[in-house]
């Protein structure tokens, strides 16, 4: 049994002159951090509240500085635990604040939600430490969340009331607040499948720099059908080859009733491919509800990337059944889909492990973020695929978002709001 981690610890990671010293917040199981480290970043601090994640961090990175709830630490505390001498040695701050406050599946209380408040604390830390670069990763819902906040500040007072009522005002506030702090910002909504991840997972990635030149949007390494002469999306069949010699998989199981229903489905099929009587049995009352319900009774398709992995592969509305076997996909398969090393040790029980991996940033997306920042720091010009379909949605880039929020006539004067 793994002993529960109950104490924070000072970093044993050394300062690197050329290593882009990085502070990681809302670190989870370290998916983003693994990707950054593959690109040469020196992650010296992890910040994580969840006990199982903290144990995972300690098991895999025993020398990294580790703190808990972000709200309990001053900047001086953070620097102390990072093992750095001062905040001037911090090059990059990265983090994906809890997304439930902005998720389209939740109540969408935004910054009025306690989880939204940790987002505000994260902004405070970026402003006070003032690193060369920052990264914010979050769900698509951030782009349509209406600003709800308990205390007004100077930035809110300068934003026209008409904008504050608009969907997307939460993100607009974040942008304007960080621009006011001296950052040049770029962002878009990205599908992780475009970066070699065998998973269709869409996340907003915001990158800010103190440089007068923006960091380009992330450069894709793959495309759905080989567009731009890039390799095609990685499929589940390709990704799972690494697991061929693993005999035992850690997994949860279906009830006998559910398992019998899955015997009627093949790779890539879902409840809609069942006879009508079995459809009604499979969905119960949900059968009569609206919506596509494509996540119900769903087998993964061998010849496609996985849908977004969630915190549990057997939830009724987001089922992730193995393409052939009668079981949810395993912990090992979760690791492969999120690109974690197979030898990455996960603390906790099986449910804890699914949750940690399901909440993580895909390693390939982390690498893409790292490559873009490294290229920008070295004045290397990366190719911005201006017409590339970064996600399923249109008009999600920084310029398009600001234009939508402010209107064409206001766009030219957008920065004057904060002079």
Automatic annotation (TrEMBL):
<dbReference type="GO" id="GO:0003677">
    <property type="term" value="F:DNA binding"/>
</dbReference>
<dbReference type="GO" id="GO:0009307">
    <property type="term" value="P:DNA restriction-modification system"/>
</dbReference>
<dbReference type="InterPro" id="IPR029063">
    <property type="entry name" value="SAM-dependent_MTases_sf"/>
</dbReference>
<keyword id="KW-0489">Methyltransferase</keyword>
<dbReference type="InterPro" id="IPR031303">
    <property type="entry name" value="C5_meth_CS"/>
</dbReference>
<dbReference type="InterPro" id="IPR001525">
    <property type="entry name" value="C5_MeTfrase"/>
</dbReference>
<dbReference type="GO" id="GO:0032259">
    <property type="term" value="P:methylation"/>
</dbReference>
<dbReference type="InterPro" id="IPR018117">
    <property type="entry name" value="C5_DNA_meth_AS"/>
</dbReference>
<dbReference type="GO" id="GO:0003886">
    <property type="term" value="F:DNA (cytosine-5-)-methyltransferase activity"/>
</dbReference>
<keyword id="KW-0949">S-adenosyl-L-methionine</keyword>
<dbReference type="Pfam" id="PF00145">
    <property type="entry name" value="DNA_methylase"/>
</dbReference>
<dbReference type="GO" id="GO:0044027">
    <property type="term" value="P:negative regulation of gene expression via chromosomal CpG island methylation"/>
</dbReference>
<feature type="active site">
    <location>
        <position position="99"/>
    </location>
</feature>
<protein>
    <recommendedName>
        <fullName>Cytosine-specific methyltransferase</fullName>
        <ecNumber>2.1.1.37</ecNumber>
    </recommendedName>
</protein>
<dbReference type="InterPro" id="IPR050390">
    <property type="entry name" value="C5-Methyltransferase"/>
</dbReference>
<comment type="similarity">
    <text>Belongs to the class I-like SAM-binding methyltransferase superfamily. C5-methyltransferase family.</text>
</comment>
<keyword id="KW-0680">Restriction system</keyword>
<keyword id="KW-0808">Transferase</keyword>
């Amino acid at each position: 049994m793994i002993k529960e981690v109950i104490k924070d610890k000072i970093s044993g990671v050394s300062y690197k002159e050329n290593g882009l010293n990085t502070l990681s917040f809302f670190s989870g199981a370290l998916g983003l951090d693994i990707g950054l480290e593959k690109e040469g970043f020196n992650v010296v601090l992890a910040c994580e509240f969840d006990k199982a994640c903290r144990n995972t961090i300690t098991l895999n990175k025993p020398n990294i500085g580790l703190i808990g709830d972000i709200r309990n630490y001053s900047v001086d505390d953070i620097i102390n635990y990072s093992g750095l001498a001062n905040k001037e040695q911090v090059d990059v701050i990265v983090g994906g604040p809890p997304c439930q406050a902005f998720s389209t599946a939740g109540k969408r209380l935004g910054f009025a939600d306690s989880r939204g408040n940790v987002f505000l604390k994260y902004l405070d830390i970026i402003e006070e430490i003032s690193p060369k670069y920052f990264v914010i990763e979050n769900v698509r819902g951030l782009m349509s969340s209406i600003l709800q906040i308990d205390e007004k500040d100077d930035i809110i007072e300068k934003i026209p009331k008409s904008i504050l009522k608009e969907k997307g005002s939460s993100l607009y506030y974040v942008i304007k607040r960080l621009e006011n702090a001296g950052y040049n910002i770029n962002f878009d909504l990205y599908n992780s499948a475009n970066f070699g991840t065998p998973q269709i997972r869409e996340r907003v990635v915001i990158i800010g720099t103190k440089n007068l030149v923006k960091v380009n949007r992330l450069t894709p390494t793959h495309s759905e059908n080989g567009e731009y002469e890039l390799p095609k999306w990685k499929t589940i069949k390709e990704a799972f080859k690494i697991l061929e010699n693993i005999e035992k998989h850690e997994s949860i199981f279906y009830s006998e009733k559910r398992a019998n229903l899955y015997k009627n489905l093949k790779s890539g099929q879902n409840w809609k491919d069942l006879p009508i009587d079995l459809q009604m049995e499979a969905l119960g009352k949900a059968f009569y509800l609206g919506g596509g319900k494509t996540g119900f009774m769903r087998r993964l398709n061998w010849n496609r990337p996985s849908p977004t992995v969630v915190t549990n592969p057997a939830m009724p509305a987001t089922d992730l059944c193995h393409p052939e076997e009668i079981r949810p996909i395993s912990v090992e398969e979760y690791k492969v889909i999120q690109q974690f090393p197979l030898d990455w040790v996960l603390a906790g029980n099986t449910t804890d492990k699914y949750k940690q991996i399901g909440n993580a940033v895909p390693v390939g997306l982390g690498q893409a973020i790292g490559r873009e920042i490294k290229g920008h720091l070295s004045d290397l010009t990366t190719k911005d695929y201006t017409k590339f379909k970064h996600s399923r949605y249109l008009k999600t880039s920084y310029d398009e978002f600001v234009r939508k929020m402010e209107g064409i006539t206001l766009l030219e004067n957008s920065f004057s709001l904060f002079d």
